[in-house]
Specification:
Elements lengths: L1 H29 L9 E6 H11 L5 E6 L13 H8 L3 E4 L6 H8 L6 E4 H5 L14 H18 L4 H27 L7 E4 L5 H7 L2 E2 L2 H8 L6 H13 L5 E4 L5 H12 L4 E4 L9 H16 L1
Parallel strand pairs: 1-2, 1-3, 3-4, 5-6, 5-7, 7-8
Helix pairs in contact: 2-6, 6-7, 7-12
Bound molecules: zinc ion.
Length: about 300
C-alpha cells in the first residue's frame, strides 16, 4: 500500500515537472529573442503613455497610463491599490511633476519600486514650484522628453536599442513638422495681432511658443490660484473683446468654471473668435495630432 502511494506521488511529481518544463519551453519560444523580457512603463497620464508608446512600438514593452480618457481630472485624482501594484512592478515611471500629479508621487513613495523615474517638469524642463504645470503644451519640452526617454529605455533594455533609436528618429521628425507649423504661424504675428485673453493657463506654453502674449495675466493668475478674479479684470476682458485688442479668447472646455463659460459667451457676443482647448488628450488621437490640430485652429483664427 505504501509502495503504491509512493509510486503515485512520484508519477504526479513527474507530471507536474513535465508540465512546468513544457510551459517554460513554450514561453521561451513565443517571446522571441532569448534575452528579451517585456519591460513595464507606467505613466501618470495618457499623454505620456502615448508619447512613450511611439518609442517602444515593435518591442514587447507594456506602456500603461494610470489615468486615461478625458473623464478623469488629473489635478484631483484618487489612485487605487491596483495602481500601486502597477508601479511596484514597473521598470520606468513617468510623471508630469510640479504638483500636477502629486497623487502619483505619493503612490510611488507608498511602494518599494525599483523603477527608474522621469519627472518631466523638474528633470528635463528645469522648472520650479509655481511654474505653469501644463507642460505637455510645450512642444519643445516634449521633444526633449522623447530624447531622454529613449536613452532611459536603452539603459533598461539594451536588447532593443536599435528599435528604440529607429522609432525615436521617426517620431522626432513628426515633432519637426509640428515645429515648422508653429514657426509658420509665428511668422504671421505682429504687434497688432499677438495679444490673446485666456480662461486659464492650460495652453500658455504653446501660445507663447507661437509668440502670443497673454493679455489678461491678472485674471489668469486668479483662476490658477482658484480665487475670484476682480470685477475690474472681468470688465477689462469684456472691453478687450469688444475693441478686438485681443485676437481670440482661449477657452478650456474641460474647466467647468461658470466664469469661464460666461467669458466665452461674452467673446461670442462680441464676435471674437474662440480657441477651444482641453486639459487632457482627446480620446482616439495621438499627442502629435492633438497639438497639430490646436495649431491648425490657431492658424485659421489668424486668417
Ligand atoms: Zn489644469
Amino acid at each position: 500500500m505504501k509502495k503504491i502511494f509512493a509510486t503515485i506521488v512520484l508519477a504526479l511529481a513527474a507530471v507536474v515537472f513535465v508540465g512546468c518544463q513544457s510551459q517554460s519551453q513554450q514561453s521561451t519560444t513565443t517571446s522571441g529573442s532569448d534575452s528579451e523580457k517585456a519591460i513595464n512603463v507606467i505613466t501618470s497620464t495618457d499623454v505620456y503613455s502615448d508619447i512613450v508608446s511611439e518609442i517602444t512600438q515593435g518591442t514587447s514593452a507594456n506602456v500603461t497610463p494610470i489615468i486615461s480618457g478625458s473623464s478623469a481630472d488629473p489635478h484631483h485624482f484618487e489612485p487605487t491599490a491596483n495602481d500601486a501594484k502597477k508601479i511596484t512592478n514597473a521598470d520606468l515611471i513617468v510623471e508630469n511633476g510640479l504638483g500636477y500629479d502629486s497623487w502619483f508621487e505619493k503612490l510611488v513613495k507608498s511602494t518599494d519600486t525599483k523603477a527608474q523615474k522621469i519627472s518631466i517638469a523638474t528633470d528635463i524642463g528645469q522648472l520650479k514650484d509655481g511654474d505653469n504645470e501644463h507642460i505637455w503644451y510645450d512642444v519643445s519640452l516634449m521633444k526633449k522628453f522623447v530624447e531622454t526617454t529613449t536613452q532611459k529605455l536603452i539603459e533598461i533594455d539594451s536588447a532593443n536599442q536599435a528599435t528604440y533609436e529607429k522609432n525615436a528618429q521617426a517620431y522626432l521628425k513628426k515633432f519637426d513638422t509640428l515645429t515648422a507649423k508653429i514657426d509658420d504661424v509665428k511668422s504671421h504675428l505682429s504687434d497688432a495681432n499677438k495679444k490673446v485673453n485666456v480662461s486659464e493657463p492650460v495652453a500658455d506654453y504653446l501660445l507663447q511658443q507661437i509668440g502670443f502674449e497673454i493679455n489678461n495675466k491678472h485674471f489668469e493668475q486668479a483662476i490658477a490660484e482658484e480665487t475670484d478674479p476682480s470685477a475690474q479684470d472681468i470688465a477689462q476682458m469684456q472691453k478687450d473683446f469688444e475693441s478686438k485688442t485681443v485676437s481670440f479668447f482661449v477657452y478650456n472646455t474641460q474647466s467647468h468654471s461658470p466664469l469661464a463659460d460666461q467669458m466665452a459667451d461674452k467673446a461670442k457676443a462680441a464676435n471674437l473668435p474662440i480657441l477651444e482647448v482641453t486639459e487632457t488628450k482627446p480620446n482616439d488621437t495621438s499627442y502629435i495630432d492633438w497639438m497639430t490640430d490646436v495649431v491648425d485652429h490657431i492658424s485659421k483664427l489668424m486668417n
